[in-house]
């Protein structure tokens, strides 16, 4: 079976509040997206990396990816992340088999490490469902009433924070996203769960943050600088 990374990069970065979508903001002198691409292209287990941009993306420059032989750039992003991934999977249909593995990874997670990608692949390569990188929670959790008063403390031993990559077979994931009509689908795993299947949680890395708000950029550049040192 093949292992292919699919990177949704068609978002507008509204929570970042910058004029440019966050995947194009500079991080240690490179567009954020280029760090993400480099990290995945450095994973020996991945045969191919597919980047999905918005059809009206005005920022991407082909020169950034010159020489990246394992990379394919598509311009079929959609209005939501799920739609971007669905369009990317549909575009790949002719070149992958239904049981090939797709690792969907947020373009906005530039600190992804080879180590956790390889752990995900090694843990799931024979799994019937697939799964995702995830981490336990550190904070104490509260269940609130409508007025902002805490009613109870929620046991956190069964709760995890989902990260990416999320790794599922092409055929199953496309079917899951095509039947996922409701807006509550924020990641691939939730679409798979809606089919009644239980994705496996594989230990991720605290540093694999999603750059969402301005402060996240400083943290990401610190992590990347430490790695490159
Ligand atoms: N994404 C995408 N297509 C969309 C929306 C999001 O490909 N229509 C991608 C983003 O580019 C990002 C990843 O999905 O790499 C995670 O999404 P998120 O962090 O929510 O990014 P944005 O949607 O761009 O940010 P915001 O929600 O703040 O607008
Ligand atoms: Mg978003």
Descriptive tags:
7-stranded mixed beta sheet, transferase, Spore Coat Polysaccharide Biosynthesis Protein SpsA, Chain A, 229 residues, 6 helices, 28% helix, Nucleotide-diphossugar_trans, binds cytidine-5'-triphosphate, alpha/beta, nucleotidyltransferase, binds magnesium ion
Number of domains: 1
Q: Percent of residues in beta strands?
A: 15-25%
Report low-confidence residues grouped into runs of 5 or more. none
CATH topology name: Spore Coat Polysaccharide Biosynthesis Protein SpsA, Chain A
**Top-tier CATH class:** Alpha Beta
Note the gap between the termini. 35 Å
Q: What is the residue-averaged pLDDT?
A: 96
The CATH architecture assignment turns out to be: Alpha-Beta Complex
What's the CATH superfamily, by name?
Spore Coat Polysaccharide Biosynthesis Protein SpsA, Chain A
Cofactors and ligands = cytidine-5'-triphosphate, magnesium ion
- What structural category do the secondary elements indicate? alpha/beta
Strand order of the largest sheet: 5-4-1-6-10-7-11
Roughly what percent helix?
A: 25-40%
N-to-C order of helices and strands: EEEHEEHEHEEEEHHEH
Number of helices: 6
Got a strand count?
11
Shape: globular
Largest sheet, in brief, is:
7 strands, mixed
Rg of Cα set: 18 Å
Provide a descriptive summary of the structure in words:
- This protein has helices at residues 32-41, 81-92, 114-124, 170-179, 188-193, 214-228, and strands at 3-8, 26-27, 30-31, 48-52, 71-74, 101-104, 130-136, 141-144, 150-154, 160-169, 200-203.
- The protein has 229 residues and is of the alpha/beta class.
- The chain has one domain: Spore Coat Polysaccharide Biosynthesis Protein SpsA, Chain A (Alpha-Beta Complex), CATH 3.90.550.
- The strands form three sheets. The protein has a seven-stranded mixed sheet, sandwiched between helices. Strands 2-3 form a two-stranded antiparallel ribbon.
- Strand 2 and strand 3 form a beta hairpin.
- The model has no long low-confidence stretch (mean pLDDT 96).
- The structure holds cytidine-5'-triphosphate and magnesium ion.
- Magnesium ion binds at residues 11, 81.
- Pathway: Isoprenoid biosynthesis; isopentenyl diphosphate biosynthesis via DXP pathway; isopentenyl diphosphate from 1-deoxy-D-xylulose 5-phosphate: step 2/6.
- The record marks 156, 210 as: Positions MEP for the nucleophilic attack.
- It catalyses: 2-C-methyl-D-erythritol 4-phosphate + CTP + H(+) = 4-CDP-2-C-methyl-D-erythritol + diphosphate.
- Keywords: Isoprene biosynthesis, Nucleotidyltransferase, Transferase.
